[in-house]
């Protein structure tokens, strides 16, 4: 984009808040400095601006790559292989542009911490409250989903060793303990473990379905051949639900504001984003194509159950650290939103005072409890999470970013309506309209899925002891 190089240099000079001096063993000592979001940061308090570009990359990856990637084969089964890949690439381009705009907007507006601050700039106090509430609900529901993912893994590994409600409670306690780590810079080290864990589990699954004679859900006697289709004709509700699943797989966008706010050098945001999105898209396409082509309509969802009981235990065992890190990260992000809202502008935000710690632990504990209740108490949880992903995830990942570009660049058209400006205005309008379409259509598809689930099984009970791992 024109003029951004000089602008970024100016912004980075203004926000270069971490002058450091080298000391023994290569460590760094930071001075007492001021940040537009966190205020005065002293050496004795937590360092909220210490995430490097590598840490940023892995945090971006971990907010998006989880069990969501394992729904991609099911999406291809619904849409057909070729339409599935096309839809995935289109959504990938749209969300990557949205993610890019997050970094640009942060450079232009140093006082923005989260998407709620964006809402204030775009629509005033009403926008601040609506965007903030929507973000909080979204990340809390993802936290609950991740807790249920841990419970599913523990059920699979232990062959349903105890009541599922117990496993969910264990997941909540783990999420609270690790989610209470103060800064994303410290969390990023665990995120490396999480992303390696998830990618290894996915690779193991992909190899397993490739070398086995047939998937676990297929008939185990007689000849068998994969019935995958290049094109399919799904119902309207199934197609919309599949699109929603793809968007949800890319819907870490609202969390990118919070990650960018804790970066040491915001100029490296785009570098991290390019690596993240490129890696994610390659993984999604590879896993989706291989698993679906080998399993066909017998693919399990989540796909970790597609390779049989033994490999299911192995894959879930490998993926468990990744599921724990996902839970930890989203508990942290949801708690950090409330924490900064409560203490912003106060010395307690960046100093290890009693008020600081009481507020922080209260936020992590409160969000953990709410996520635990959601994970345990709401029937048809999978359908409800899909509904929240469609209703909140899409709303947080597309429409605001189109508005953000227009907010920063609309004035340029008053002096000269260049071809580039008119194209970008058209693109932003497309993103906003497409975002609302995906929100409404995905919500419709998810509601139909919930209704169908109730018709088939009557729903699931709250605080159930039943095994929630895939039966294959």
From TrEMBL:
Record organism: Viridothelium virens
Signal peptide: none
Membrane topology: Multi-pass membrane protein
Entry's Gene Ontology molecular function annotations: L-amino acid transmembrane transporter activity
Keyword Transmembrane: yes
Pfam families linked: Aa_trans (PF01490)
UniProt domain Amino acid transporter transmembrane: residue ranges: 52-444
UniProt keyword list: Membrane, Transmembrane, Transmembrane helix
Protein location: Membrane
GO cellular component, one term: membrane
Transmembrane regions listed in the UniProt entry: 81-102, 130-151, 157-178, 190-211, 239-261, 282-304, 316-333, 354-375, 381-407
Protein name: Amino acid transporter transmembrane domain-containing protein
């Amino acid at each position: 984009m024109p003029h951004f190089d000089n602008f970024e240099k100016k912004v980075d000079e203004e926000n270069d808040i971490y002058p450091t001096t080298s000391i023994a063993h290569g460590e760094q000592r930071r001075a007492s400095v001021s940040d537009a979001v966190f205020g005065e940061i002293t050496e004795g308090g937590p360092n909220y601006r210490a995430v490097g570009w590598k840490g940023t990359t892995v945090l971006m990856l971990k907010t998006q790559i989880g069990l969501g990637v394992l729904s991609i084969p099911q999406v291809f089964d619904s849409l057909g292989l070729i339409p599935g890949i096309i839809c995935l690439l289109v959504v990938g381009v749209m969300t990557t542009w949205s993610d890019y705009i997050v970094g640009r907007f942060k450079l232009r507006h140093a006082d923005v911490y989260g998407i709620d601050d964006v809402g204030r700039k775009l629509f005033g106090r009403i926008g601040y409250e609506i965007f903030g509430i929507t973000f909080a609900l979204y990340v809390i529901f993802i936290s609950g989903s991740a807790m249920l993912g841990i419970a599913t893994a523990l059920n699979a590994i232990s062959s349903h060793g105890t009541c599922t409600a117990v496993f969910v409670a264990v997941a909540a306690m783990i999420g609270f303990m690790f989610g209470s780590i103060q800064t994303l810079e410290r969390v990023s080290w665990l995120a490396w473990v999480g992303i390696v864990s998830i990618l290894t589990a996915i690779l193991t699954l992909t190899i397993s379905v490739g070398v086995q004679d047939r998937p676990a859900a297929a008939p185990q006697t007689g000849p068998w051949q994969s019935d995958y289709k290049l094109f399919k004709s799904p119902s309207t509700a199934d197609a919309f639900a599949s699109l929603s699943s793809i968007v949800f797989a890319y819907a870490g966008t609202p969390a990118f504001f919070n990650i960018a706010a804790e970066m040491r050098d915001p100029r490296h945001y785009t570098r991290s984003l390019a690596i993240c999105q490129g890696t994610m898209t390659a993984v999604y396409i590879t896993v989706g194509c291989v698993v679906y082509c080998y399993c066909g309509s017998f693919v399990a969802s989540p796909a970790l159950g597609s390779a049989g009981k033994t490999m299911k235990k192995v894959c879930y065992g490998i993926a468990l650290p990744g599921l724990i890190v996902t839970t930890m990260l989203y508990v942290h992000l949801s708690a950090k939103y409330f924490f900064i809202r409560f203490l912003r502008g106060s010395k307690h935000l960046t100093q290890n005072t009693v008020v600081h710690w009481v507020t922080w632990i209260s936020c992590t504990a409160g969000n953990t409890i709410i996520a635990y209740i959601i994970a345990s108490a709401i029937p048809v949880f999978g359908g409800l999470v899909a509904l929240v992903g469609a209703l909140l995830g899409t709303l947080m990942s597309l429409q605001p970013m189109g508005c953000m570009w227009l907010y920063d660049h609309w004035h340029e058209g008053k002096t000269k309506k260049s071809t580039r400006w008119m194209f970008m205005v058209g693109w932003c309008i497309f993103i906003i309209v497409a975002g609302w379409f995906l929100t409404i259509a995905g919500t419709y598809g998810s509601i139909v899925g919930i209704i169908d689930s109730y018709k088939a099984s009557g729903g699931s009970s709250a605080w159930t002891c039943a095994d929630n791992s895939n039966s294959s």
